[in-house]
Amino acid sequence: MITTSLASFIINLHIDGIPLFALEKAKLCFTDFLGVSLRGSREKSSQAIWDTIESIKLSPGDLSKEITVLGHGGGGLLEGCLINGISAHALDLDDGHRIAQLHPGCSVIPAALALAEYHDKSGKEFLEAMIAGYEVAIVLGIMVNPVHRNKGFHSTSTLGVFGAAAAASKILGLNFEETVNALGLAGTQSAGLLESGHSGSMGKHLHAGHAAHSGVISALLAQRGFTGSSSILEGKEGFLKCMCSTIKEKEDLVDNVTSLLGQFHIKDVYLKRYPVCRHLHSSIDSARQIYKELQLKRININQIDHIKVRTYKTAAEHDNYYPETPESLRQSLPLSIAITLCGGDLGVDDVKAISQISPEVRALSQKIAIELDEKLDHLQPHKRPSRVAVTYNKINMGGNELNRYSIEKTTLLPQGESENPFTKEEILHKFQFLNSGYDIRKLEILNEMESLSIRYLMGNFN
Question: Structure pTM?
Answer without folding.
Answer: 0.94
